Amino acid sequence: MKSNVAKTFIAVAVIIGGFAAVFLLSGFTERNIPALPEDFEDEDLAVQGSLLKGYALGFEGLIADWYWMKSLQYIGNKIIDSKEPVNIDNLNALNPRLLYPYLDNATTLDPHFIEAYSYGAIVLPAIDKEKAIKIAVKGIENNPNEWRLYHQLGYIYWRLGDYEKAAGIYDKGAEIENAPPFMKLMAAQMRKEGGSRETARAIYRQMSAEATDRQIKETAELRLMQLDSLDERDAIKKVLDDFQTKNNRCPDNWREVLPLLQTTKLPENKVFHIDKSNNLVDPTNAPYLLVNKDGKCEISLDFAKTKIPAN
After folding, report:
1. Measured distance CA(190)–CA(210) in Å, rounded
2. Beta strand 273-274 pairing with 280-281
């Protein structure tokens, strides 16, 4: 009896030690890997989560967390290392081909890993729309009573411009017990005016409110600032057109039109922001650019300073 217990203990210790050695060796390899060409592509994952499931001696959740953290670091490092401005609507320039495998492994080992599904639904549409749908559907199949995952899938179809499909998904999510009224309202909003800024604002506000991950919350907040900037630029463009019609020229600086802007109403009673140098600034506090393009007054974002996406 004692001999069997000892053998079992030794076997378990060897397996756990093996996993520990793999992770330590992985970290050592990453720290000491020689410099690679800039266009070198990521290698495929050597281990698939489906192969570990059932053989990790109850450590599936821990390994899932490891894959989850790797996915966050992976995208974060890609953005930090990028030499060009990052377009959050299209991340393919970063070549982030391992993001889906990381998230797929995490959610295979832990099918109830809601944060991983949510992160995939928010980020993957900018990389591969089909895989974004796939991870969201996988989440719903494994967690059919989690209304947030229906919201994530509805968000993806909304991004794709398929408002009717998005409405149907929000309808299903609204039927789940404890689902907020937001779900039913969004189903109706999708059918009524799916492409409006009001719909987008409602989606990103809900996303920000329910986010448990910092990157998801920051993305939602950035999108809300982008919507505010679009409203501001529409209003500013109208003021510039009126000024040019009246004076037969473009203003030399923002100070010339500030009185007109102060009487201009923005949606939701928001106001324009002016910095200490009397520059008109966007919601990220980067100055708007006043451009005279072939005799026509235009307003532009300062893409060297703003955090607002171009699209």
Report:
1. 20
2. antiparallel
Domain boundary among 153, 186, 221: 221
Number of helices (H) and strands (E), helices first, in the chain?
A: 12, 4
Q: Is residue 91 part of a domain?
A: yes
Q: What is the pLDDT of residues 253-302, one digit of tens each?
A: 898 998 888 889 899 889 999 888 888 999 999 999 999 888 889 999 99
Give pLDDT tens digits for 229-245. Answer: 999 999 999 999 999 99
CATH code, domain carrying 167: 1.25.40.10
Domain that holds residue 77: 45-221
CA-based angle 206:169:127, to the nearest 5?
70
Lowest mean pLDDT among 19-23, 96-100, 189-193, 287-291: 19-23
pTM: 0.73
| Contact predicate 114/105, CB 8 Å | no
152 and 112 part of one domain = yes
Q: In whole angstroms, what is the distance from residue 68 CA to residue 232 CA?
A: 38
Residues 91 and 201 in one domain: yes
Rounded to the nearest 5 degrees, what angle is found at the Cα of 258, between the Cα atoms of 255 and 260?
135
Report, as an integer, the average pLDDT of 101-108. Answer: 92
Whether 311 and 226 have beta carbons less than 8 Å apart is answered as no
Alpha-helical segments (H) within 33-145: 49-52, 60-81, 99-109, 114-123, 129-142
Residue 23: alpha-carbon gap to chain centroid: 28
What is the average pLDDT value for the chain, to the nearest integer?
Answer: 83
Count how many domains the chain has. Answer: 2
Instruction: Enter the tokens of residue 189.
Output: 């909003």
Intra-chain end-to-end CA distance of the chain, in Å: 69
Alpha-carbon distance 220 to 23, whole Å? 33
Mean predicted confidence (pLDDT) in 191-200: 91
Residue 226 belongs to some domain of the structure: no
Residues 151 and 80 in one domain: yes
